Amino acid sequence: MSPQPSALASRRPQRRDAAQNRGRILAAAHEVFAEQGLSVTLDNIAHHAGVGVGTIYRNYPNKDTLLAEVMADITHTAIATAQEALTFPDAWEGLRHFLHETVGLQARHRALREIMFSPDKLGAAGHAQAQELTAVLQSLTERGHAQGKVRADITHQDLRVLHLMLSALLERSAGQPELWIRYAELFLEAVSVRPPPRPLPPAPGEEDVARLLAWNPAKENPA
């Protein structure tokens, strides 16, 4: 027996409301994870989204599932950025574009920085995406080799390690949000085989370095 028209009409708003709620939850999760990191609770996200925590549980069974979807969105963006970098006529400029865009995203997203040191939270789908990104990074690096713009002994794995290094710097340099740019440029000049080198952004001062050395994560993230 087919549903009556009135029954179908009553279901449509429910479907729309459910889709809208899911979208609000995901948008709020992006913002809260970016600002506060992995320690946020579903209550925090529900409050930010303007929904009850029960609404979140109807869409996501736990925080890790919601986090995985947020990270999947971010990894998709990184893959798209790497693919865009492959279209640059100059492979070195493409590499520079990719590095600045993706590390800039890390600078704005605390949970992304933290999860780079806790990859087990990505899940199977996240690891598959990470492998896809790694493959594009390999193409980006090999293109630089083919054009003679990137040192032959530089590999895509160096880019992955650099992201980890800059993540650690970003965690320590909250009061110096642009400091990472100097070290990204330093890396880029080191891997380039094209003269002349570009001027680097300003070096940190003695007090800046002292703050980096004295950084205490417990003070930054009180229990």
From TrEMBL:
Stored InterPro entries: Homeodomain-like_sf, HTH-type_TetR-like_transc_reg, HTH_TetR, Tet_transcr_reg_TetR-rel_C_sf
DNA-binding feature ranges: 41-60
Species per Swiss-Prot/TrEMBL record: Deinococcus wulumuqiensis
Domain of life assignment: Bacteria
Domain HTH tetR-type: start-end pairs: 19-78
Residue numbers spanned by region Disordered: 1-20
Protein name as annotated: TetR/AcrR family transcriptional regulator
Pfam families per UniProt: TetR_N (PF00440)
